[in-house]
Amino acid sequence: DYGLYSFKDFFKNSKIKKINLSSNLITSNGRFQIKEYFYKLDNLKILNLGISKSSFAKNNLGNESSDTLRDLILNCKSLEVLILDSNNLSQDGIFVLADGLQNSFLKELTIKNNNLNSNCFEYLLKKGINLTKLDLSYNKIKDGSEMFLANFSFSNNQLQTLNLAYNNITSVFFNSLTNNFYKNSKISKLIIKGNKLQDVNPDFISQL
Questions:
Q1: 68: which residues sit within 8 A by CB, 6+ positions away?
Q2: What is the C-alpha to C-alpha distance for residues 93 and 29, in angstroms, rounded to an integer?
Q3: What's the predicted TM-score (pTM) here?
Q4: Distance, C-alpha 72 to centroid of its chain
């Protein structure tokens, strides 16, 4: 977290378009620096607070930082891509963060390998109407959203890519999802590998 403070003068450069702070051991204490520095970056388009592929080190913003992340999405009008992989986020934090999505310009949100459940999935779909890409792979999403999916209107959603790989989804969830969005959504890419889809035609899955 002190490392963020050491970049204070660097972040004064309002022309910055991409910041990669993945695998920097940033905890919830770093949320104060995020609020102070990033809200003022008028040209920032991509912010990576996730984990690097070749690193075991992780950030750990946690649910305590969710209000800061929500306000970041709302205040940084230029931000289009936010990556929050492996940050120990769960339902309480996601519900707060997602409240900023409806009125933001964010296009791509990646929250891989956290502690997201089916309620998180539903809430992010409802609130993230402007998102074109949502990556919730390697989480704890499972069956239980069938009624929600049957009644959810994807026609009001801009989503084009949905990644639900390596969760605990079965054919029950999968069928409810696909039966709905193929009728009224803009989704052109669904990533569903690594789930429990024994009853689904493998040729059909391979096309997704």
A1: 31, 32, 34, 35
A2: 15
A3: 0.90
A4: 14
Report the C-alpha gap between 161 and 191 in whole angstroms: 8
Contact 46, 18 (CB under 8 A): yes
| Pick from 181, 190, 199: nearest CA to 133 | 190
The percent helix, strand, coil of the chain (3-state, each to 5) is 40, 15, 50
Model pLDDT for residues 134-152, shown as the tens digit of each residue: 999 999 999 988 888 888 8
Neighbours of 100 (CB within 10 A): 20
Element (H, E) at 181: helix 171-184
Position 155, amino acid: S
Q: Which pLDDT tens digit goes with each residue over 41-86?
A: 889 999 999 999 888 889 999 999 999 999 999 999 999 999 999 9
Q: How far apart are CA 112 and CA 132, in angstroms?
A: 16
Number of neighbours of residue 152 by Cβ within 10 angstroms:
20
Vertex 98 angle, CA 73 and 20, to 5°: 45
The closest alpha carbon to 85, from 136, 130, 45, belongs to 136
Q: How far is CA 14 from CA 44, 45, 58, 125, 180, in A?
A: 8, 11, 27, 32, 43
